[in-house]
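Lab notebook page, bench 4
Experiment: in silico fold of construct C2
Operator: M.H.
Input chain length: 166 residues
Purpose: comparison with the prior construct
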Amino acid sequence: MRQGAYALERVEPLPPGSGAARAATTADRELALRWWIAFGEEVLHEGGPGRERAEATLDHRLSTAGTGIFLWEDAGEVVSLAGWGGRTPNGIRVGPVYTPPELRGRGYATALTAELSQQLLDGRLVEGGLAEGDLDRLEDLAVADPFVDRVRGRVREIGIEEAEAV
């Protein structure tokens, strides 16, 4: 699978959408774990070790400062998930971003990724904040995926590197 690293310059304004972002809590753990595993199976084709580490990774994201999970809710229903964590020398990683297949195509992941990215740039989620351009965005999605290209078009990024996963 092809993956890429991107540096965020700024978040382009989006038209108002339906719903809003919120931080996940331990009460959201079951749903977040199901979606984390679904992401791994669908996008990364992970079984075995990736799936086995999902629970520990999710628990870490829900309980550790400087990491976390955001959810997008529309009409009281959680419809999309985006995670962040893993500081890098110049920023922080964003991912996974997941919306169940039956809820795709409505702009939820785009809006959620934009909101999460803006909050990270503004320093609202990471102690010490991040300077503009310092947000590393390591994609866990195929570089050629048309959905990923649409999101990237709205969340202004500069491609840094692409690599074939081994």
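Observations: Residues 48-63 form the longest helix (16 residues). The CA atoms of residues 2 and 75 lie 35 Å apart.
Next step: discuss at group meeting.
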